[in-house]
């Protein structure tokens, strides 16, 4: 088994396929349940079915992960928003005027009276 493959295109059917090493391909199509230790892609990539990152898998959603850090704005289209799966509350917008709470939850704003702002965990 080689540890380097340079290809113009590659098609893999079924999740039992395994390649140890790096694959460089202009077009890569994989079907079935497949596991990668690392994926690096340039340009736009399309995944259908779903993506699990880390050790948290929820097949009800397109992407599931145990943690996420973003360096830009998180943008949500339409009448959607942020939802806490554990506690059943969140925030969303349905018009250009108000941010609304979801799940009948209250919003508590905590002030540090000018001290250092609270740091998220």
Tell me what you see in this structure:
By secondary structure, this protein is mainly β. It has a domain at 4-65. 0% of the residues lie in helices and 31% in strands. The chain has strands at residues 4-13, 22-31, 51-53, 63-65, 81-84, 89-92, 100-102. The model has no long low-confidence stretch (mean pLDDT 76).
Query: What is the number of helices?
Result: 0
Structural class: mainly beta
Q: What is the quaternary state of this protein? A: single chain
Mean pLDDT: 76
Could you describe the largest sheet, including whether it forms a barrel? 3 strands, antiparallel
State the low-pLDDT regions, or none.
none
Separation of termini? Answer: 44 Å
Give me the Rg, rounded: 21 Å
How much helicity do the residues have?
A: under 10%
Strand order of the largest sheet: 5-6-7
Assign an overall shape: elongated
How many extended strands?
7
Strand content: 25-35%
Please summarize what this structure is.
By secondary structure, the chain is an all-beta fold. The protein is built from no helices and seven strands.
Topology:
Elements: E1 4-13, E2 22-31, E3 51-53, E4 63-65, E5 81-84, E6 89-92, E7 100-102
Parallel strand pairs: 1-2, 3-4
Antiparallel strand pairs: 5-6, 6-7
Characteristic terms for this protein:
two-stranded parallel sheet, 3-stranded antiparallel sheet, 121 residues, mainly beta, elongated, 0% helix, 7 strands
């Amino acid at each position: 088994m080689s540890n380097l493959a340079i290809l113009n295109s590659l098609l893999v059917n079924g999740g039992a396929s395994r390649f140890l090493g790096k694959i460089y391909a202009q077009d890569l199509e994989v079907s079935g349940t497949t596991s990668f230790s690392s994926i690096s892609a340039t340009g736009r990539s399309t995944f259908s079915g779903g993506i699990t990152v880390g050790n948290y898998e929820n097949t009800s959603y397109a992407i599931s992960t145990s943690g996420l850090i973003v360096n830009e704005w998180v943008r949500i289209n339409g009448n959607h928003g942020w939802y806490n799966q554990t506690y059943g509350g969140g925030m969303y917008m349905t018009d250009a005027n108000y941010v609304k709470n979801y799940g009948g939850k209250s919003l508590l704003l905590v002030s540090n009276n000018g001290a250092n702002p609270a740091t998220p965990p």
